[in-house]
Amino acid sequence: MLDLRFIRENSELVKKSLKDRNLQLDLDGFLKLEDSRRKILTELEDLRRQKNKANDEITALLKQKKDVKEKISSMKETSEKIAGLESELKAASIGLDKLLLTIPNIPHSSIPVGDASCKKTVRSWGDPPKFDFKPATHVELGQHLDIIDLGRAAKITGSNFILFKGWGAKLERALINFMLDLHTKKHGYTEIFPPFLVNRASMTGTGQLPKMEEDMYRLKDDDLFLIPTAEVPVTNMLRDEILEEKDLPVYYTAYTACFRREAGSYGKDTKGLMRVHQFDKIEMVKFVKPETSYDELEKLVSDAESVLQLLGLPYRVVMLPTGDLSFSASKCYDLEAYSAGIGQWLEVSSCSNFESFQARRANIKYKQVNRQTGKPATEYVHTLNGSGIALARTVAAILENYQQKDGSIMIPEVLRPYLDGKERISR
User: Fold this and answer.
1) Tally of domains in the chain
2) Which of 103, 354, 394 is nearest to 232 (CA)?
3) Three-class DSSP category at 252
């Protein structure tokens, strides 16, 4: 959430942000409502002063045993005006708060302006594999090896769900354990295992609500949501808390299943593991001081890259443009792994800096000493999160890149200790 004063004092910047994001929002109407609210508040405070003054005068007159009827009558009129203005102020504040939750974060000045076609490749690693045979897709390989059963998944639940079997299930589990070990033992994250259901305040705190409610799975009887990413429960661990400056930065990592309705995915590639409603993911979440947050973003990307490098998957790092940026992010890098069977680059990680946007919504602050006054003060932390990494598409890339002519799959060396030393998945 943006600071109200910031919006008021930087309205042209906010309008440019909306234009760069290709979003339609009546910011002038928002500012008029804010101006109206401020006028109501000014008038209300003036009337309250008048009422307090009248109370003092009535008390003094009563002590002098003088007539106070006229004063009381005048005060009643003032009280009625106050009640009316308080009602107007409440309505204006509620309306303003709702609108404030619909204004996205300001894109960082370093990112490209434009739609998804304007994304910028920052760097790449590894070369796509070359085969002396026509490579199969992960769907074909999964069926051949009997490790992925999309038909039974559809029977159990519906389309675009996954059922891993045998070595497919073990491969999924091995990937989860490998990534958690890497992030906790090498990268300094504390492991979290959070609830997979969160309340409305948590979804609002990280920016999924109100904008993306239609894309979420909601339990109507309890008003709880299945998490779209571990970012939601892990970030909200510190909601309404004040951290000590000495304790920053805070790094958390978590495995969770993720649930997304993909309500806007019509016409997109939804075959196999490309776009599913439930998938596993390792998430990395950071709480940092504002002055370090962009250095922390680069480290976050590096932590995600190390996963792909150790798995031996060719990938590229792309900087998202303004029109492809998530609602809460100020800057985001996507990591795209190459998948040889379908010949595509697959997004397997997004690493974002939200600056104080989420912290303001979730009220996450830290104590510091004001450098000018030397007195204690509080400031919003900056939050970051990144996939470290998402598994459905990563599994697709492993199957397709490590396939052999006979349809077997060589297991990446880094995963073999998690699979009893097994080197190959064969039929």
Assistant:
1) 2
2) 354
3) strand
> Domain for residue 111, yes or no?
no
- In a domain, residue 109? The reply is no
Domain that holds residue 76: 4-100
Predicted confidence at residue 267, as pLDDT, reads 53
What is the structure's pLDDT at 265?
A: 55
- Residue 129 belongs to a domain: yes
Give the separation between CA 382 and CA 388, rounded to whole angstroms: 19
Q: Are residues 131 and 63 in the same domain?
A: no
Domain-ending residue, one of 76, 100, 124: 100
* SS3 state of residue 25: coil
How many residues in total does the chain contain?
Answer: 427
Burial of 123 (0-12, 13-18, 19+ CB in 10 A): exposed
| φ, ψ for residue 339, nearest 5 deg | -120, 115
**Low-confidence residues in the chain, pLDDT < 50:** none
Which pLDDT score, from 0 to 100, does residue 14 have?
A: 98
Q: How far is CA 272 from the centre of its chain?
A: 25
The whole-number pLDDT of residue 71 equals 77
DSSP notation for 178-219: HHHHHHHHTS-PEEE---SEEEHHHHHHTT-TTTTGGGS-EE
Q: List phi, psi (to 5°) of 22.
A: 60, 45
Would residue 221 count as lying in a domain?
A: yes
State how far the Cα of 335 lies from the Cα of 347, in Å rounded to an integer: 6
pLDDT value at position 264?
A: 55
| Whole-number pLDDT of residue 145 | 98
pLDDT single digits (tens) 346-393 = 999 999 999 999 999 999 999 998 777 888 899 999 999 999 999 999
- Looking at 100, 134, 152, which one is the last position of a domain? 100
Q: Are residues 84 and 128 in the same domain?
A: no
* Residue given tokens 């990937």 in the structure block: 175
Same domain, 312 and 375: yes
Cis peptide before 107 (omega within 30 of 0): no
- pLDDT for res 61: 81
